[in-house]
């Protein structure tokens, strides 16, 4: 799974990088070196404008943890931070979003944990690793988004009536990520961003073909402090490399 990642680029940098045409500067997110489930995260998506019919590419904050439209509670999202590539086009929770509501989630890299055996009867511990592109380029993680209407809010226009949530698509891990954890997030290559985001593109086979390893598999993994285990910890120090336990 992908349960934590880092996203520290300025929104203006993301607007330029992803050729965004619509962005509200008042919707600000702080850089995060410890993005956790239920956090708000930057996303790039395309929507058809109701007034003009024009397709606009937007930079928007979404809540990480997809809540299907039919879910009874927002809490459902905490268990749906990832969607498996192998079943994403068929599972009821994701298939409509895969067909119509795809997004990109910009990331600097992601964390995974490796179980480290302990001597004797001591409990094994988990060593966190930060996995990121060798060239430090941004990763456009493949995501889906969904709208959820809170039934406890009577007015459609009231704050909290509508939530927009997202999930990250994952697959079997390879290369540097594979030695740490069996699953890893998928990404979309820059040449395929438009095809992935296009809300009129519905062919499941063609969409699956766009899913790829982040940075084309050119990833590095470094051991980092267990400080990242606590969601309250944040800052660039979380990416500092430490000596790997033997």
Automatic annotation (TrEMBL):
Pfam families reported for this sequence? SRAP
Q: Which domain of life is it from?
A: Bacteria
- Family assignment? Belongs to the SOS response-associated peptidase family.
Which EC class heads this enzyme's classification?
A: hydrolase
List the protein's name.
Abasic site processing protein
> PANTHER family given for it?
ABASIC SITE PROCESSING PROTEIN HMCES, DC12-RELATED
Q: What is its EC number?
A: 3.4.-.-
UniProt keyword annotation of Transmembrane helix present: no
Which terms under GO biological process does the entry name?
Answer: protein-DNA covalent cross-linking repair; proteolysis
Q: Note the Gene3D superfamilies from the entry.
A: SOS response associated peptidase-like (3.90.1680.10)
| Gene Ontology molecular function, alphabetical | lyase activity; peptidase activity; single-stranded DNA binding
Among its keywords, does the record have rRNA processing?
no
Kindly state which keywords UniProt assigns to this record, in alphabetical order.
Covalent protein-DNA linkage, DNA damage, DNA-binding, Hydrolase, Lyase, Protease
